[in-house]
Amino acid sequence: MAQPAIADASVASFLASLAAHTSSPGGGAAAALAGATGAALLSMVCHYSLGQEDLAAWQEQIAMTLGRAESSRPCLLAIVDHDAIAFQRVATAYALPRATKDERAARKQTIATALAGAAEPPLAVGELVAPLASEARALLGRVNHNLVSDLGAAGAFFETALRTAQFNVVENVRGLGQDQRGTTIAARWRELTARAFQDLATLRRSLDDELRLPSLDAESGTVP
């Protein structure tokens, strides 16, 4: 019998699986879920901005962003399961026998292939989230003013998704050592996310200014 998709589980069930003493799901799955949450928030912002007379000049842009967010969300949810499968393959590869020289060579090759494969789900998170991050920034000042905090929340989830996925990419690249595939994966990640991180920083600063968010004291956690 096929195992039920992790992405179809309840929030409580997914978190229980994430917390369990098992090899998957892990950080990559969490990154994908964070990206999907950001996409859902961005969709909500767009829904509440369509048809607004004062936003007439940007209706086409809002509609296009909504379309991308809606199409990306199920893809990101699918990555939750893809990442769990890829991570399980890595665990299986590390468990291979290594008593003889041939076994050690085969194990090393299998591990490298599994690690390269495990980099694909977080890379896919980057491919989907990076454009959404840029589109969220581009909507600054062009959405329903009552949803500004939700636009910021979407950006925060996108940043969490990308940072978490990056940890997974780095770990897999580190495991590949001198394997050329590691260099290729690292270069691909940098190309995917360079602009997105800049856009998210711009979005965060702009919303901090617009909402006049108070600084929190680092030691006490109280508002000065």
Task: Give a quick precis of the structure.
By secondary structure, the protein is mainly α.
Describe this structure in words.
- This protein has 7 helices and no strands.
- With 224 residues, the protein is an all-alpha fold.
- The protein has a single domain, classed as Up-down Bundle (Four Helix Bundle (Hemerythrin (Met), subunit A)), CATH 1.20.120.
- Helix 5 packs parallel to helix 7 (180-211).
- The longest helix is centred in the middle third of the chain and has 36 residues, at 59-94.
- 38% of the residues are buried.
- The mean pLDDT is 90.
Q: What's the structural blueprint in terms of helices and strands?
A:
Layout: H1 11-19, H2 27-47, H3 59-94, H4 101-118, H5 120-138, H6 148-176, H7 180-211
Helix pairs in contact: 2-3, 2-5, 2-6, 3-4, 3-5, 4-6, 5-6, 5-7, 6-7
Shape: elongated
Question: Considering DSSP H and I runs of 4 or more, what fraction of the residues is helical?
Answer: over 70%
Give me the Rg, rounded: 20 Å
Examine the coordinates and then state which fold CATH places here, giving the name of the CATH topology. Answer: Four Helix Bundle (Hemerythrin (Met), subunit A)
Main sheet specs: none
Regions with pLDDT < 50 over 5+ consecutive residues? none
- Distance from first to last alpha carbon: 58 Å
Quaternary structure classification: single chain
Judging by the overall fold, what is the CATH architecture?
Up-down Bundle
Number of strands: 0
CATH H level, superfamily name: Formiminotetrahydrofolate cyclodeaminase monomer, up-and-down helical bundle
